[in-house]
Amino acid sequence: MTASQAIDQLIANLADWRGEMLAGVRRAILAADPQIIEEWKWMGSPVWSRHGIIAVGNAHKDKVKLTFSHGASLSDPDKLFNAGLNGKVWRAIDLFEGDVIDVTALQSLIRAAADYNGAKTKRKAL
């Protein structure tokens, strides 16, 4: 099974609002940058990458969490990050039932994360 198929299955098995939320987050992420790849890591976590991990998505009992690997290094003018704000590396967006995704803002954050990873990759190559 491919990573994309595993993510499809995860979403299908979430028979409540969390499946719809994760599917919406996924669509926004993949539409933000056509070079983003999907991965399946850590025994059941959807991961979106370009030049390294951008974000990890998880469905919890009461929320869908989208954790950005280098969120602390990203500008967040739309204030999407609402979890892990004191961390030195990671930042997350916790989405709860009834929340509405600001697709434009999320896609800007996704592109910023991909750009950050690309710049980091270039620095390593030097």
Please state the structural category.
alpha+beta
State mean pLDDT (0 to 100 scale): 94
Secondary structure: helix percent: 25-40%
Secondary-structure element order, N to C? HHEEEEEH
> What name is given to the CATH topology?
Aspartate Aminotransferase, domain 1
CATH architectural grouping: Alpha-Beta Complex
What is the CA-based Rg, rounded? Answer: 14 Å
**Count of helical regions:** 3
Q: How is this fold's topology laid out?
A:
Blueprint: H1 3-13, H2 17-32, E1 37-41, E2 45-49, E3 53-59, E4 64-68, E5 91-95, H3 103-125
Antiparallel strand pairs: 1-2, 2-3, 3-4, 4-5
Notes on the structure:
The chain is built from 3 helices and 5 strands. The protein is of the alpha+beta class. It has one domain (3-125): Alpha-Beta Complex (Aspartate Aminotransferase, domain 1), CATH 3.90.1150.200. It has a 5-stranded antiparallel sheet with strand order 1-2-3-4-5. It starts with a helix and ends with a helix.
